[in-house]
Amino acid sequence: MSLSMYEASVPALSRMLDNLRGILEKGAAHAEQHKLDASSLTTFRLYPDMFPLSRQVQIAADMAKGCAARLAGADVPSYEDKEVTFAELIARVEKTAAFVKSFSSSQIDGSEDREIVLKGRNGEMRFSGKNYLLHFVLPNLHFHVATTYNILRHNGVVLGKPDFIGGV
């Protein structure tokens, strides 16, 4: 039995978004419990040339929504990238998860060879649907969720591996 494009995308994207929401909820609870200015966490960077936590979350959401839409041949919704609070970031993740989960297998299956063209700062990137999912989206999504996790963990939020990988 082979794995379909839907099975390889929507459940994986949804799970990481759900895990990201949980990570952010723990960050918000930590800030409240310790009476911290939450912006000290949402604006934190692991290194000066890295994006802050808020941008890590925005990019993770963009990866997920863009993937589901492009594989389905649908329009990618545009978000304003103005979230700065934990509540706003969590709302963005929830909105993205609902969007990703709105796609059916009939919309995504068979997209292995769909041409995906992304326009970036350095020109166009072209992928087959399969390579876009497996070699671009999933590694990027995991990177930005892991970086969010690492920023919060570095700042004392009690997180463990199960928060990142979710329940099995």
Strand content: 5-15%
Can you tell me the number of structural domains? 1
Query: Any idea of the CATH topology?
Result: Four Helix Bundle (Hemerythrin (Met), subunit A)
Low-confidence stretches: none
Overall average pLDDT: 96
Task: Supply the CATH class.
Answer: Mainly Alpha
**Widest sheet, order of strands:** 1-2
Structural class of the secondary elements? mainly alpha
- Give Rg in angstroms: 16 Å
Detailed description of the structure:
This protein has one domain: dinb family like domain (Four Helix Bundle (Hemerythrin (Met), subunit A), Up-down Bundle). The protein has a two-stranded antiparallel ribbon. α1 packs antiparallel against α3 and α1 runs parallel beside α6 (129-154). 62% of the residues lie in helices and 7% in strands. With 168 residues, the protein is mainly alpha-helical. The chain has helices at 5-33, 39-42, 53-72, 86-101, 105-108, 129-154, 161-165, and strands spanning 115-120, 123-128.
Task: Jot down its keywords.
Four Helix Bundle (Hemerythrin (Met), subunit A); 168 residues; mainly alpha; globular; two-stranded antiparallel sheet; 62% helix; single chain
Task: Draw up the topology in text.
Blueprint: H1 5-33, H2 39-42, H3 53-72, H4 86-101, H5 105-108, E1 115-120, E2 123-128, H6 129-154, H7 161-165
Helix pairs in contact: 1-3, 1-4, 1-6, 3-4, 3-6
